[in-house]
Amino acid sequence: MMGAAEVASxxxxxxxxxxxxxxxxxxxxxxxxxxxxxDPAAGNIVSTEDMEQFQLLHFILxxxxxxxxxxxxxxxxxxxxxxxxxxxxxxxxxxxDYKDDxxxxxxxxxxxxxxxxxxxxxxxxxxxxMEFFSRYQGHLLHPLQFAELGANLFMKARVLNRTxxxxxxxxxxxxxxxxxxxxxxxxxPVFGTWEAEDxxxxxxFFLGYPLEMVMPVKGRLAxxxxxxxxxxxxxxxxxxxxxxxxxxxx
Length: 250
Description:
single chain; alpha+beta; 4-stranded antiparallel beta sheet; 3-stranded mixed beta sheet; 8 helices
């Protein structure tokens, strides 16, 4: 299996296709899964009408078979993808974690020592993400720390204030896929702000912790990324569930 360094050094277009295939493939599979298997009349998890909202992502996937040139003003690919090195649990049950937000088109994947965050937003999160996430990309993260970063990316996707604009051109040999500057001509912020309570809910979703752990004081969020002095925090993997309990049998 490829490690974090190998994944980070992959061709970015190829990496985009790999993570987008996972996101779109799971979505497509839900076209055929009942929302309630006890009630077949309830319909499936995803409808064909729902899938129409993802036509642009399906078009990007065609670059695996049709020569396609991406031109994105805010990124190198029409998405925001970040790769991290994560400590790998010795407990096999905790070596994998996946989450997505279909509405806001985000993906969180932890597999072995590789952590990937992706927002299929035509590159909107790339500029702020390069500034924020780069601090942690050279740090061997605990899975909880990576989960906190995932909560940040998912939350930022919720407050995106723009609808990306794309221009597609086709010739007999190639396809050009151009994304106009996300900010456009508007002077309003590309991303809005969120309330601490909303982020607390997101952290609860990612970490599985109760409210009193993610927000010990009302309006103030806990963090696993840094110490009180702002330095990066180092966390051990020796305790369950990340490590297997010691076998005390004789």
